[in-house]
Amino acid sequence: MATTVASEYSNEVKNTPIEHQFNPYSDNGGTILGIAGEDFAVLAGDTRHTTDYSINSRYEPKVFDCGDNILISANGFAADGNALVKRFQNSLKWYHFDHNDKKLSMRSAARNIQHLLYGKRFFPYYVHTIIAGLDEEGKGAVYSFDPVGSYEREQCRAGGAAASLIMPFLDNQVNFKNQYEPDSHGTKRKHVKFLTVEEVVQLVRDAFSSATERHIHVGDGVEILIVTKEGVRKEFFELKRD
Asked: Model pTM?
């Protein structure tokens, strides 16, 4: 389609095409992170929901307990995230129905989500997905996914608006990268060890408090789901609201 555009010279007339665009995606802000411990796993997300510079909601949960001690979060375009979580919860119910309420393992859950994401690869879910839980040996497990289903098991992973701020902090504090023994003058690396639940929860609070200071799409509150062999429990902490 073309339209007539008059230039500053009244006797000149040009035909300029108008391009019509439609973008089905949006980014609703927020940040999520997962950390695997020795016998537990943590999945956390802030509760702010935004569109550009507007705050739509100060309490929009991003982390969910799906049952079978499996936690999931899909952060990015909120509509796609909600759709993916509901599809996984539905597939988990069908798995229980087909297998006499057999518990779904973390490895199988990760492969299930891979199929859900890859099946939409031509019009992908615009989200960063993380699941957390316990593996067959009772050890903490965290899997992270890109929008088209590529995934890997990791010790820790952050996703969303402030991921670039939080991930270096997690690399240092959880993976002990670039940490050395104080008396070694930078010659002996610090011994890598698992953190306790209390240390991880405090780490999550520090990470989100720091991100809130630097990113306008993160804030209001942080919800932390902790899965152990006893089950799942939730903790909530207030963040800055401006």
From this structure: 0.89
